[in-house]
């Protein structure tokens, strides 16, 4: 008889696993995936739930947006990464509710019980109360966002190639990036290099001198969380590359092709640009607010859960929140850990070890201590800035450190090799391999995620044709009895 391969409530578990504690992990990002790796082949049953079937390496989304790499280079299927472990099951779906009293999560019209719950659902973009700006200025959090930015820019250049009106061409060759953190600086630097290179080599009617990328930042400098020396170096490089910096400037309004600004020194002004991108705000996953409502756990201004030293929420030691979803303030200086890959990976590993210790599958766990490996941002080809715990590195050396760090954090070996090869090819030839215009306009809006339920029509209605199915959304979901 073939061995039973499924467990949880879907099918009876194998006898050896029947009494093992059940750990549910929501989110397959940096923290969730690390926790899953740490729990694989340990005496616990693990269910990893994600509304996408892949792990996305978000730090390189700007390279997808600017055509340096393709989608598959920064995303890896979760089932191939952790689903082959005998005690790990990967389920596609979006958690729409949590019942802390019953120890159940609700998704895909079902309730699933847990003994330990790890919430690692990450973060999204916020427009600070102006959600009407989202269709006009795509963020950069998921693959569809990066695809949309690339599609809009390349379509604008294609139209400019056929436009005799110089004023119209200038509009089409202008990009505005709102937010000058690492993501904004990386995107702005990559887009200006793409435009200059493409126009010189691939377009016959356009003038590279008319390309304009404007980087808008409310703070007084770019990379406001990094050392002023590194911020100054990054600003200098961006300006030499052709990026216009508008610092200490707030966005007042965004309309189609137009951004209204108000700067402390420059006063009100309006920019006209065919492509507008948003990297200015981050908010915690909606599960933070949902769990706060269900459990009374406090949240900070960004919607992140204020957790205990072991990442549990008050009154529920079996629920842990990690990554961008938590505000971990139990640090020597009382400042919360930054929402970056390094802290998320360390959180996921520590929580997994803590759960194993609680379940009797591991030794005592020392209190969590974050090891700060520094921060870095790549600004252009062969140029990056890095702050390695007080050691400031810029230029080529910074780029090498940035490349090594990102290759180390990428969880999939195939992607690691592919990215390194493409980076070397791009630097040697200055050619980008993913300049494809695909998808539909505004494809970053209303992205269907989670399980898509196939629909079988009765035989008598077969002649009418079949619609492909329907996604399971939060509106479709209804809690069922356990």
Number of strands: 27
Shape: globular
Radius of gyration (Å): 24 Å
What is the SS-derived class? alpha/beta
Query: Which percent range fits the helix content?
Result: 25-40%
* Count of the domains: 3
Report the uncertain regions. 1-6, 462-468, 473-482
Largest sheet: 6 strands, mixed
The CATH topology label of the largest domain is: FAD/NAD(P)-binding domain
Q: What is the correct CATH architecture of the largest domain?
A: 3-Layer(bba) Sandwich
Strand content: 15-25%
Distance between the termini: 30 Å
CATH class of the largest domain: Alpha Beta
How is this structure best summarized?
With 482 residues, the protein is of the alpha/beta class. It has helices at residues 30-39, 61-65, 78-81, 143-161, 166-172, 182-201, 228-241, 286-295, 341-358, 395-409, 413-429, and strands at residues 22-26, 45-50, 54-56, 75-77, 88-92, 97-99, 104-107, 110-113, 116-119, 123-125, 174-178, 212-216, 243-246, 249-255, 258-263, 267-272, 275-278, 282-284, 305-306, 312-313, 316-321, 326-327, 375-380, 383-388, 391-394, 452-453, 470-471. The protein folds into three domains: 15-125 and 283-358, 3-Layer(bba) Sandwich (FAD/NAD(P)-binding domain), CATH 3.50.50.60; 131-280, FAD/NAD(P)-binding domain, CATH 3.50.50; 376-429, no CATH class.
Give the secondary structure arrangement, pairings included.
Blueprint: E1 22-26, H1 30-39, E2 45-50, E3 54-56, H2 61-65, E4 75-77, H3 78-81, E5 88-92, E6 97-99, E7 104-107, E8 110-113, E9 116-119, E10 123-125, H4 143-161, H5 166-172, E11 174-178, H6 182-201, E12 212-216, H7 228-241, E13 243-246, E14 249-255, E15 258-263, E16 267-272, E17 275-278, E18 282-284, H8 286-295, E19 305-306, E20 312-313, E21 316-321, E22 326-327, H9 341-358, E23 375-380, E24 383-388, E25 391-394, H10 395-409, H11 413-429, E26 452-453, E27 470-471
Parallel strand pairs: 1-2, 1-9, 2-5, 9-21, 11-12, 11-17, 12-13, 19-22
Antiparallel strand pairs: 3-4, 6-7, 7-8, 10-18, 14-15, 15-16, 20-21, 23-24, 24-25, 26-27
Helix pairs in contact: 1-9, 4-5
């Amino acid at each position: 008889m073939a061995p039973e391969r499924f467990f949880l409530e879907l099918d009876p578990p194998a006898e050896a696993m029947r009494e093992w504690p059940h750990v549910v992990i929501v989110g397959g990002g940096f923290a969730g995936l690390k926790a899953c790796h740490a729990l694989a082949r340990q005496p616990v049953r693990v269910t990893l739930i994600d509304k996408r079937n892949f792990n996305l390496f978000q730090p390189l989304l700007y390279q997808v947006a600017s055509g340096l790499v393709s989608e598959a280079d920064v995303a890896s299927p979760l089932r191939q990464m952790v689903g082959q472990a005998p005690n790990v099951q990967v389920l596609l779906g979006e958690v729409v509710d949590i019942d802390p009293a019953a120890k159940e999560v609700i998704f895909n019209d079902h309730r699933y019980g847990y003994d330990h719950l790890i919430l690692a659902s990450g973060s999204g973009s916020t427009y600070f109360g102006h959600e009407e700006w989202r269709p006009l200025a795509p963020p950069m959090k998921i693959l569809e966002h990066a695809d949309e930015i690339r599609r809009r820019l390349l379509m604008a250049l294609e139209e400019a190639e056929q436009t005799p009106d110089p004023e119209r061409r200038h509009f089409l060759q202008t990009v505005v990036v709102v937010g000058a953190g690492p993501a904004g600086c990386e995107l702005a630097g990559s887009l200006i290099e793409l435009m200059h290179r493409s126009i010189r080599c691939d377009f016959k009617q356009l003038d590279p001198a008319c390309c304009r990328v404007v980087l808008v930042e409310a703070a007084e400098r770019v990379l406001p969380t990094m050392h002023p020396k590194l911020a100054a170096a990054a600003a200098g490089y961006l300006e030499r590359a052709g990026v216009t910096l508008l610092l200490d400037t707030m966005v007042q309004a965004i309309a189609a092709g137009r951004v209204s600004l108000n700067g402390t020194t420059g006063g009100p002004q309006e920019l006209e640009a065919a492509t507008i991108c948003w990297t200015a705000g981050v908010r915690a996953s909606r599960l933070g607010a949902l769990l706060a409502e269900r459990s009374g756990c406090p949240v900070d201004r960004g919607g992140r859960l204020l957790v205990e030293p072991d990442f549990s929420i008050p009154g529920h030691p079996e629920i842990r929140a990690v990554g961008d979803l938590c505000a971990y303030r139990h640090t020597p200086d009382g400042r919360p850990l930054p929402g970056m890959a390094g802290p998320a990976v360390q959180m996921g590993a520590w929580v997994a070890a803590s759960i194993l210790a609680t379940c009797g599958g591991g030794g005592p766990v020392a209190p969590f201590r974050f090891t700060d490996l520094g921060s870095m941002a790549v600004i252009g080809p062969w140029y990056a800035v890095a702050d390695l715990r007080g050691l400031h590195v810029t230029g080529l050396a910074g780029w090498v450190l940035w490349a090594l760090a990102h290759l180390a954090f990428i969880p999939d070996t195939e992607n690691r090799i592919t990215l390194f090869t493409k980076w070397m090819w791009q630097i040697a030839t200055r050619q980008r391999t993913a300049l494809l215009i695909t998808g539909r306009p505004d494809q970053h809006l209303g992205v269907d995620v989670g399980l898509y339920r196939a629909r079988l029509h009765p035989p008598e209605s077969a002649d009418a044709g079949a619609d492909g199915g329907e996604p399971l959304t939060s509106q479709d979901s209804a809690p069922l009895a356990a």
